[in-house]
Structures are given as C-alpha cells and as structure tokens.
Amino acid sequence: MNNRYGSNIDNILVGIGPSIGPCCYEIGRDLAHQFTNKYENYNHIIIERDNKVYLDLWKVNYLQIRDKGVKDRNIIVTKICTSCHNDKFYSYRKEKGGTKHRMIAAIGLISNLEGGKMSTKILVVDDEHSIVELLKYNLENSGYEVKEAYDGEEALNMVSQERFDLIILDLMLPKLME
Ligand SMILES: [Zn+2]
To answer: I need a labelling partner for 65 at 20 to 30 A (CA). Which of 7, 116, 120, 172 fits?
Structure first.
C-alpha cells in the first residue's frame, strides 16, 4: 500500500474478522515450537490448557501487523470464534470437514477499469483444493479472471511476477512457516 499507492501507514486500518480462536484452535507441540521459535518476542501466543496446546492466531496476526508499523489503535480484532459460534458461522474444524460451506472475506482496490478493457484479476490461495476450485468457479462466473495458488510460497512467487487486484487467502498456509 505504501509503495504502490503512497499510503500513509498512520491512515491504514486493519480488521481481523471471525475465525477460529485460541479457545478452540488446538495444535500439535511441533507446530507450537515452530511458532515460538519464529516469533520468540511474541508473548502468550501459545496457551497450555489441560495438557493440550492452543494457538492464538488472532494475536499472531495482530502482532505481525503492529510490527509492520500499523498503529495499535487502528487494528481491530473482532475476537469472534467461528468454532464457538457454529450457529452463526461455518467452521471446517468444528464440523470435522463435514460442512461444504466456507467463509471468505475480501476487500480490494479496483484500479484498472480503463474502458472496461482489462478484467479484474484475483489470486485465490488456499491449501484446500476444493475451496480454491469453488471460489474460482464462482468468481469466473462473475466475470473475474482468477489464478490459483496452493501454498504461501507459490502465492508469493506469483505476486512477484504479476499484479493482482485482489488476493483472497487463508490465514494459515503451508510453506510460510519455514
Ligand atoms: Zn472457540
């Protein structure tokens, strides 16, 4: 935003929407170690309860954004757990993969509408192939040009090679941990 649009970081607002919370996001000890190693200056991102380990993804995302220089007061974390509120939201984990429904939230700047000649190009990133296919199908039917990536590394390569008007991505992606 800064490089491309000359945005002032003090004016950037970030919202972290509903997703699985630290109350429900149980992970293995291996992954917990990777997080504590990578983010050694982040406190309280791993929570131990009843001999189980939970990850606070909201906090990790919040701290990453703050580290980039976004003002504390400009970061809003909704703290709504989709797994606890399965009556209002779909949760892949809570429903043990039994739901065919997914949630996405997207925000974008559409800047290349000169004469309507160029179509809006969207990059969809998720390690779940069925989600990517579903999104691609729906977005293409709505007239968008869609490219897909299945992990963070692939997505970063694509972003460095071409420009996208919008990127829709999963919060936790393989190959962004290493
Ligand atoms: Zn929860």
So the answer is: 120
Ligand 1 center from residue 19 Cα (angstroms): 9
Closest residue by Cα to residue 19 from 134, 135, 105: 105
Q: How far is CA 93 from the centre of its chain?
A: 16
Question: How far is residue 74 CA from its own chain's centroid?
Answer: 18
Q: Which domains does the chain have, with CATH numbers?
A: 1-105 (3.60.140.10), 106-178 (3.40.50.2300)
Which is more confident, 172 or 133? 133
Say how far apart CA 125 and CA 132 lie, in whole Å.
7
* Ligand 1 center–CA 95 separation, angstroms: 13
CA–centroid distance, residue 164 to ligand 1 (Å): 33
